[in-house]
Amino acid sequence: MSWNVALSELEYGPEEEAAVLEVLRSRWLTMGERTTRFENEFAAFIGTEHAVAVSNCTVGLHLALIALGVGPGDEVIVPDLTFVASLNAVRYTGATPVLVDITSQHDLTLSVQDVQAKITPRTKAIIVMHYGGYPCDMDAVRSLASQHGLAVVEDAAHAPGASHRDTMAGCLGDVAAFSFYSNKNLATGEGGMVTTSSADMAQKLRLLRSHGMTHQTMDRHKGHAYSYDVVELGYNYRITEIEAALGLVQLARLPAHNAARARLVKRYREALSGISGVDVPFTGFGEPPGWPYPAVSSHHLFVILLPDGADRLRVMKALKNEGIQTSIHYPPLHDFSNVKGDVEAGLIRAEALENVDRVAPRLLTLPLSASYGPDVADRVAEAISRTLAP
Ligand SMILES: Cc1ncc(COP(=O)(O)O)c(C=O)c1O
Questions:
Q1: How many angstroms separate the alpha carbon of residue 26 from the centre of ligand 1?
Q2: Measured on CA atoms in the order 337, 341, 347, 351, is the torsion positive or negative?
């Protein structure tokens, strides 16, 4: 299907093309100098000590949990309104995920009150997800975590360039994972980055990323090593040089892209403000004097709530007929059949998720891209207004 307005568009130009060609001509395709540069520049950009590039965010979360020592018998808090990867990373470790509610229909990030209610002596870590690029209430999360001796893992898939009280996402917990999947603010096809300020954690992550090997192929190629030992049960979660090269170009463009997204979101909010029954979560978020706290969104998603009781599928189809692509972020985790099975088997805890249940049927994600001008917001808002008219 060719859309007039796709949900998102890849913002690639001649620099990305040149960067890939350079890799091909260099004859070195995986985990080389570009990967190291991408790690260093990403760490500097968000203001942390260590960044470890990986194949994608899902495996980044998996590595982060293993490096924290999470395993069978532990519980890990996971938001119910997130992509299934946040949950699966916990399931891979054998720990029990405990799903938590969202704060409200205005703030779709996790409810710290619900986190508090669901902490048990088995809880080992809290995964926060900066929904749509809006940072969670990290003061409250960190304070709870330190009271109970819990680790904080940021699922920062949506949040490169977002910040909370002047600290960037990726530096707001013990360890964080970013996604560079094709539709993300910083896109390399597949790819991810794990960030931490802890040297020990970074060393573990580096070992686990590549089979627990003490030296890599690049070390041997450079003549720095002749062989290697395997000191951990690790994985192949490596990144390619092609992705790293794309990442370097995209990182340099990220601030401009995020600013363009912010402008479009502002326009959307104005254009949608008169439509009866439509609510726009995160309105006024982070703006002075700071509701609910000073923060900057990376505007990965633009999500609205349709009027209560509106037929969402009908709206999506009507927009599709005008060539406008929409989506749903997310169907609640506890509604997936595979998750329900594990809840029944006692392998996942999913209790009291009332806010998610109330808000989820109303969620609708509208097109958002750095390349879209204000006309896109006006056109989409006008189509929604027409579709919802009595
Ligand atoms: C919130 C969230 N977490 C994790 C992921 C997984 O990212 P990846 O596809 O890089 O594994 C995504 C991807 O869409 C996501 O949206």
A1: 30
A2: positive
151-202 confidence digits (pLDDT tens): 999 999 999 999 999 999 999 999 999 999 999 999 999 999 999 999 999 9
Query: Is the pTM above the cut of 0.70?
Result: yes
Does ligand 1 have an atom closer than 6 angstroms to the CB of 85? yes
Q: Is the CB of 109 under 6 A from ligand 1?
A: no
* Ordered DSSP codes for 20-72: HHHHHHHT--BSSHHHHHHHHHHHHHHT-SEEEEES-HHHHHHHHHHHTT--T
**Cα 278 from Cα 382, distance rounded (Å):** 13
Both tokens of 23, joined, read 């890799």
Domain map (residue ranges) of the chain = 14-388
Residue to substitute in 102, 181, 328 for testing ligand 1 pocket (most ligand atoms within 8 angstroms of CB): 181
Return the pLDDT at 286. Answer: 85
In CATH terms, the fold of domain 14-388 is Aspartate Aminotransferase; domain 2 (3.40.640)
CA of 224 to the centre of ligand 1 (A): 35
